[in-house]
Design brief:
Elements lengths: L10 H12 L15 H7 L11 E14 L2 E8 L2 E8 H4 L1 H10 L5 E10 L5 E12 L15 H6 L1 H7 L1 H22 L4 E2 L5 E2 L11 E4 L4 E5 L4 H9 L4 E9 L11 E10 L3 H20 L3 E4 L2 E4 L5 E4 H9 L8 H10 L11 H13 L7 E7 L15 E9 L2 E8 L4 H16 L10 H8 L5 E7 H9 L33
Parallel strand pairs: 3-5, 6-10, 14-15
Antiparallel strand pairs: 1-2, 1-4, 2-3, 4-5, 7-9, 8-9, 10-11, 11-18, 12-13, 15-16, 16-17, 17-18
Helix pairs in contact: 6-7, 7-9, 10-12, 11-12, 13-14
């Protein structure tokens, strides 16, 4: 495969660039004085009539369609805030500049225009162009029509093209940016401090997940991409920062599906002198606040469901959830009886479970998770799968841990944080032993973190909220790939447009 097989360059467009340069036209100038955006023009001239405005406007954007009519040309031009029609006449531009536009400006090119505004007889606000400048000549052709890309693989692989063509995609990512800004605003207003912790870590921890590994040449040392920032943020609480958070990129070497991507974003929040009840309250406040700010109400439409995030939300212990959805009281049965029940109902991984707590988690995941459509907190998890959560203050064998589920998806995970260094040492040693026996998701033992706890961490509550799934929820997108600008995908082997012949097909 040659280098050109990977490129979408159109030789006709490249020939046009050469012709323009021979005519003395600068094809890629360095700047343009844009004084107005399309949105500003439409707002300022919303009441314009058929006469040209006295005021001159100067704007720039990408050409989406050109319609030639002899000595006049209509074109649609767009910027990040919208599209507007252009009207060009040979008598106004002069023969040479009109000829340049007519012969050399195509859909996909970026131009700057100066002119006046009027409303056509069809009622469309339009710029009557006095002069224009070619700012960027595109050499890759846009899809033939401009209603939006149809092929989802092309949209994900070539997100830049998706953003050029689809206003809906641009709006999704505008909303994502706004959600993250609002989240920061919410936490800043409550005196939380934002920190950045290492992405490359000598010991991974903070979650049960398989890590990505790499090697640092100068240190001659194996390093891991973080699976969570938790252990570093709790070091900060030890150090005296009592309200901290991080909006973190995490990396987990796991399957890819509609709810999972190996690289994903979370916000993790820790506050001294709080517990998991306070963190449930905080999680409710955050998501309810974001729903109000983004939608103006507490009702969300997602995956065919109408979700009500009005506080307070339902709270069930994991045992209550299993009794409700599986019809079994786990504590009332022997391990052998639980194993038989699991086998009868085709519960995954039941062979590896050896305690009632492990069966409790398996039964909840099998019977309960997908039933939790409206916002529901599941709390009081078995100690077996919660190595960083404090033992329950009243219930033997359980920890003070919760997870939030909405529309069958886990949205958040929080604890009364374990701050007993001796207990933490014992639990991480159990995790490390499981890892050494082949459990690829078990945690390593981090002695430096244990030492940090040894200096004393106050009672602390913590929660992690998945930002990508939160954006899915607030934008109504039922695939994580729709809210990630560049989702992880297998590298194509046939060039930029993939294997399908219709990758640049469009929706009518």
């Amino acid at each position: 495969m040659s280098d050109t097989d990977h490129l979408c360059f159109d030789t006709t467009k490249i020939d046009k660039i050469q012709d323009l340069r021979e005519r003395g036209v600068t094809v890629y100038p360095y700047t343009f004085e844009r004084k107005d955006t399309v949105e500003e023009i439409k707002e300022r001239f919303s009441a314009i009539g058929h006469e040209k405005s006295a005021e001159e406007v100067s704007t720039a954007g990408r050409i989406y369609v050109v319609r030639q009519h002899g000595k006049t040309i209509f074109a649609d031009m767009g910027d990040s805030g919208g599209r507007i029609q252009l009207y060009l006449r040979k008598n106004d531009l002069g023969e040479e500049q009109f000829d340049v536009f007519k012969q050399y400006v195509d859909a996909g090119d970026i131009i700057g225009v100066v002119g006046h505004v009027f409303r056509t007889k069809m009622g469309e606000i339009t710029i009557w162009v006095d002069r224009f400048e070619l700012l960027t000549k595109s050499v890759c052709p846009l899809p033939e029509k401009f209603h939006g890309l149809k092929n989802v693989e092309t949209r994900y692989r070539q997100r830049y093209l998706d953003l050029i063509m689809n206003e809906e995609s641009r709006e999704t990512f505008r909303t994502r940016s706004r959600i993250i800004s609002l989240l920061r605003q919410f936490l800043f207003e409550r005196d939380y401090l934002e920190f950045e912790t290492p992405t490359l870590q000598p010991i991974y921890g903070g979650a049960n997940a398989r890590p990505f590994t790499t090697h640092h040449n100068a240190l001659d040392q194996k390093l891991y991409l973080r699976i969570a920032p938790e252990l570093y943020l709790k070091r900060l609480v030890v150090g005296g920062f009592e309200k901290v958070f991080e909006i973190a990129k995490n990396f987990r070497n796991e399957d890819i599906d509609t709810n999972h991507n190996p690289e994903f974003s979370m916000v993790e929040i820790y506050e001294a002198y709080q517990d998991y009840n306070d963190m449930m309250d905080l999680t409710e406040e955050i998501i309810s606040f974001l729903a109000q700010e983004v939608h103006g109400n507490s009702i969300l439409s997602f995956a065919g469901h109408e979700l009500d995030v009005t506080r307070p939300w339902r709270r069930l212990t994991m045992e209550e959830a299993v009794q409700e959805y599986a019809g079994i009281d786990v504590r009332a049965h022997t391990v052998e009886e639980l194993r038989a029940f699991a086998q009868e109902h085709n519960v995954e991984d039941y062979e590896s479970a050896t305690t009632w707590g492990e069966f409790l988690v398996l039964f909840f995941e099998h019977f309960g998770e997908k039933q939790l459509i409206q916002p529901t907190f599941i709390y009081d998890f078995p100690i077996e799968n919660s190595p960083l959560a404090k033992k329950h203050r009243e219930k033997e064998g359980l920890t003070e841990r919760f997870e939030l589920f909405i529309a069958g998806m886990e949205m958040a995970n929080g604890f009364s944080e374990l701050n007993d260094p001796l207990d933490q040492k014992a639990r991480l040693e159990l995790q490390d032993a499981k890892r050494r026996r082949g459990d690829l998701e078990a945690q390593m033992i981090d002695y430096d973190f244990i030492n940090a706890l040894g200096y004393g961490m106050p009672p602390t509550g913590g929660v992690g909220i998945g930002i990508d799934r939160l954006v899915m929820l607030l934008t109504g997108k039922d695939s994580i790939k729709e809210v990630l600008l560049f989702p992880q995908m297998r590298t194509p082997v046939t060039g930029p447009n993939g294997a399908e012949p219709d990758d640049n097909s469009v929706e009518e």
